[in-house]
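[09:14] KT: can someone run the structure on this one? pasting the chain below
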Amino acid sequence: METSHADLIANLGKSGWRIEFLPDRQPLPASVAERYPWLPTGYREAIERTKLVCTEDDKAWLLTGADFSSTSESAFAWNEWERQSLDAATGDDEWRKRIIAFWDRHAPVLMSVKSGYAYFAVQQDTLAIVCGEEPEYEETTLVASSIEELLALLARREPRLGRWV
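[09:31] RB: done, structure tokens below
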């Protein structure tokens, strides 16, 4: 039997992550759903039912329906790192277009402030998970082959992810 995304997220709670569920499903805002229609359906539905999924020290968190709807208590917007890149590219229209095109193909799923600013994102063409870090957020490294693998690695407290979570 295949494990659901909701079960994979719930497994994070067993390994010390704090998880809060929403009383009702909070669909992603239209602007997010339209930008990332290729997000795996099961994953999208699971995050639409969560308010908070974060590490014990609050330094890494999965983006949830509350984050995408700007109703979370996070100090950071769900697209904070994209915003920072666009701010750095002020006055350079070609650079700004490349940044937007990059983020159109990379849906952020986890943010980290553990050792600098970093994120994990689902890559559109492969649905693999990549990591990007400041100052060059758009330069990425492969972390997992899928969102399911990432959630399993996080639940296992995979040492190679310790730098970020």
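[09:33] KT: thanks! The chain has a mean pLDDT of 94.
[09:34] RB: yep, looked fine to me
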